Amino acid sequence: MLLRVLADGVPIDCGGVADGFTGCYGKLPAIGIAAVATIAAAAVVGHAVLAALVPQLFNAMTGVPTGGGEGLLGGGSPTVKVGGLRVPVLPSIGPSVPFAGRVLLVGEGNFSFTAANLGLGRAIPQNVTATAYSPDGRFPPDVLSRADQLRAMGANVRLQVDARNLPADLAGGAPFNTVIFQFPHPGGPRTGASVAGRQLMRDFFASAAQRLAPGGKVVLTLRNQHYVSHWRPAEAAAAAGLRLESVTEFHQGHYPGYGHVTTSAGATSPDVSQGFTFVFTRG
Ligand SMILES: C[S@@+](CC[C@H](N)C(=O)[O-])C[C@H]1O[C@@H](n2cnc3c(N)ncnc32)[C@H](O)[C@@H]1O
């Protein structure tokens, strides 16, 4: 078939979607059109990649834990999977571990978390009972001397209090409005840590619930999703009649002077610069 040609050289039946650019319009426009199409496709793909990555990059730069989860609230909001459900992690711009009323801290390690909160003026020392526990019953000199400093301020400091046995180890006295366990760990070999951690959670919540004032809160901070999944704190709390009220970002930097210690002396100190703070209340 003969092509009829317009004055400027473009065949008049060009313009259908099946027309070859080169045949209809010549080589130069075809290269231009292909280049524009390639740039447009790259822009679309680039935008999609950025949209997916920017929230995670922003969270990583600002230290917000993501819990390894998808955004529940859209826009990559951090979440943590608790008891089979994805729960939003509330942001914190300052100290967010509740510290109200009569406060009991268990498993305090070196007592620096207690000292940091008192230093921030979050409670009067007379309302604070800080306790530590050691598998062999021994405590290093720096721990003993910080315990003495806190006592001198007016806090009640007790050694060798077992978080699994609070009714006996802290017998008598008024119940607590806030019971706090920061970064619990049973110690011992890594291989049995999941089972031992889960048992510690069950025993701690059962014990804490018995010393809790009406409307009181049990507060637990864990490092990451791994511990939440393996130690199952929400299930342990539920078995003790407590329900999850909130999960908030934990930032070590909000507590000046707070330095972490491990359960087993000499163990590698983990990164506790951030984590999840769980607040449970009687359901
Ligand atoms: C990883 S350390 C964290 C110490 C401290 N809370 C901190 O944030 O640095 C875990 C703590 O849990 C304590 N712990 C383990 N089993 C305990 C129990 N049955 N009762 C009380 N504390 C316990 C250990 O003595 C240890 O101090």
UniProtKB/TrEMBL annotation:
<keyword id="KW-0808">Transferase</keyword>
<keyword id="KW-1133">Transmembrane helix</keyword>
<dbReference type="InterPro" id="IPR019446">
    <property type="entry name" value="BMT5-like"/>
</dbReference>
<keyword id="KW-0472">Membrane</keyword>
<protein>
    <submittedName>
        <fullName>Class I SAM-dependent methyltransferase</fullName>
        <ecNumber>2.1.1.-</ecNumber>
    </submittedName>
</protein>
<feature type="transmembrane region" description="Helical">
    <location>
        <begin position="30"/>
        <end position="54"/>
    </location>
</feature>
<dbReference type="GO" id="GO:0032259">
    <property type="term" value="P:methylation"/>
</dbReference>
<keyword id="KW-0489">Methyltransferase</keyword>
<feature type="domain" description="25S rRNA (uridine-N(3))-methyltransferase BMT5-like">
    <location>
        <begin position="104"/>
        <end position="260"/>
    </location>
</feature>
<dbReference type="InterPro" id="IPR029063">
    <property type="entry name" value="SAM-dependent_MTases_sf"/>
</dbReference>
<keyword id="KW-0812">Transmembrane</keyword>
<dbReference type="Pfam" id="PF10354">
    <property type="entry name" value="BMT5-like"/>
</dbReference>
<dbReference type="GO" id="GO:0008168">
    <property type="term" value="F:methyltransferase activity"/>
</dbReference>
